[in-house]
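I would like you to sit down with the record closing this message with an eye to the fold:
=====
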Amino acid sequence: MLYRPIWFLSALMYRVFFKHFFINYKDFDLKRPTIIVSNHNNAFIDPIVFPTIILPRIYFIVRGDIFNTPLKHWLLWNMGQIPMFRIRDGIDNVKKNEGSFQQTYDLLAKKQNILIFPEGDCVQEKRIRSLKRGTARMAFGAVLKHGWELDLQLLPMLNNYTYPKEFRTEIMVNVGEGILLSDYKQLYLENENKALAKLTNDIHFAMKELYIHIDNKEDDELFEKIVILKRNDMPSGIIPWRKKGNVRFDMEKRLANSINDSTIELKKELEEKTKTYFSTLEQYTISDASIKGITPNGMLGLFLTLLGFPLYTIGVLLNIFQFLFAKKIVDEKIKQVTFQNSIRFGILLATNSLIALILIIALSNIHWLLAVLSPIALLLLAFYAINYHEYVQSWLETNRMNKVDSTVIKELKVMRAEILNTL
């Protein structure tokens, strides 16, 4: 009942919320019963990223503690969510998981798709953590109840966020090859524990291959600095917003692997070079993008800024309330960082939907076509206003860089090249 409206609205809102959306997959088959396995580092956003780019409906395994009232239970179920309780939720609640397992078995028997996060808790880091065996148990439980002819598969799908805490983060969605449960039938019949362990390990390996994984937390900052240079070496245009292919992901994956394989001495050398480079950029209030030369030209930027300002003003006036309201709630009420971006998205989705509904009702008395087009216009103006703002900020940076002594710019370019050549 609520699934499709939210699916449609989320697919539209993502155009504003994410700066770029990269999707990388080979052909995958969701006509057979499928358990989709994914990483979990952006709370409520994670379950609705992949579903908004495909038509088949997906059911999600989510934290059971949010199903704490009959109204929430009804709402969440109608959005395709199935509760799964943890030990910390109490033994009585954990016993309810059997009902959820039976529900998923029956949905899979009807060739429905289940999305699950085998890592368990939501943590924002560039690492795939150890997996719980619950996913493997769910898969084998389904065939035990409905037979091995169920032809069930597990499909790894990973969300790689550039900055999961931030509005306008970029996202790279990678879908791997399906893991056929029938390949584990003989092992399961011989030794259930070995089959559970092997399937869990194979899922973990498949997920890790599709994720930008940094082995050591202390290397995160080094990766984040160098990857800025790498991204600016292959800038992405505003249009098309959704980009298919693995070029961007492969670049970041190679960088992560290089850092993982580097010696301590090489990492220290890179840390010193990147620290010097970025502190110098900060000193002159410019960024690597301007050093690379991908910020707008001075005179052309001024012309486009002046030309686009009237439309930008309209876009701001129609959208500023929603964004300021979302910012206020998140800044003042949401203390847990992992939930901030999800709450921000939810508020923007709800407030924009409300304003769109008001526009439809108000304009339907004038002309039905105006009523239909008004929500689309609202979204397009938000998309334009945000991209215009980012363009102007980039143009202003060009002006700041033009005031910096040319000798400093040359030195920065040398530093930049040395960093990239070191790794």
Q: What stands out?
A: DSSP finds 16 helices and nine strands in the chain.
